[in-house]
Amino acid sequence: MNGNGRSRLLRGATTLLCAGAVVSLAACGSNTGSSSSSGGTSSNLPAEIKVVSINPTTGPAAFAGLAANKGYEVAIDEINSQKFLGDTKLVLSKEDTAGNAQTAASKLTPAVADKNVAAVFGSVSSNEAVALAPIADKSKMPIIFTQAGSPGVVIGDYTYRATPPMSSYYPKVGDFIKSKNVKSVGIVYAAWSPTLKDIAEKTIPEMGKSLGFNVVSSIGTQQTTQDFSAPIAQVLNAKPDMVSLLLVG
Prior knowledge:
single chain, 249 residues, alpha/beta
C-alpha cells in the first residue's frame, strides 16, 4: 500500500491506536505482538508511516515542547522496537514553532500537503494549538494535542487531546482554599495564553462564587514580559489572602 492508497483518516486512526497501545505494552513488558503477522498489520500498512511534531523547541514554552518531543520519541521507539506494526516503522519529524502561532500554522501547511504524513502532534502551547486545530480539522488531518488545555482546541472529528482541559484541574483546590478561609484572591496571568487567560478570567472567578472569595486584582502579562515585579506589586497592593500565578515556564 502506498501513501496515497489509504484515506488519511485510516492512517491517522492507526497512529492513534498504536500510540495508545504502546503504553500497555510498556507497562506489561509483553512482546507477544512483536511478530510481523500480529494483527495482520504488515500486509495492510506501508513500510513507513510519517508523523510530524509541531511544537515550540525555542521560545517561552520550549521547556514543554522539548519534553513533548522526548515523549513522542520514547513511544515511537517502543512501537518500532517491539514491531507492534510488524515491519512498518513510525517515522517522526519535528518542526519548531518558536512560540509563534503564525509560525505554527505555516509549519502545518506542508504536513497537510504531504499525503505520506498520517498524523500530526500539535503544539503544547494553547495559543498555537488554537491556530493549528481549524486548519487540521478542515484538511482532515488527524492532530493530537498532549496538553493545550484551552477552548478552541478540540473542535471536530480530526482533533484530539490526551489530557483534560486545564480549567478542570483548578476546582480541585477548593477544599484547600476553604481550609485557609480565603476571602480575596489576586491573579497574575499570561494574557497571551488562551488556556491561562480562560482560567484567570472565567474559571477562578466562577470558583469564587461557590467558595466565597472575590478576585480583588487581576493583572495580565504579555509574552515579552521579563520583569514581573510591577504586576506582582500591583496585585499585592490589593492585599489579597492568596495569589494565583498563572504564568509559563
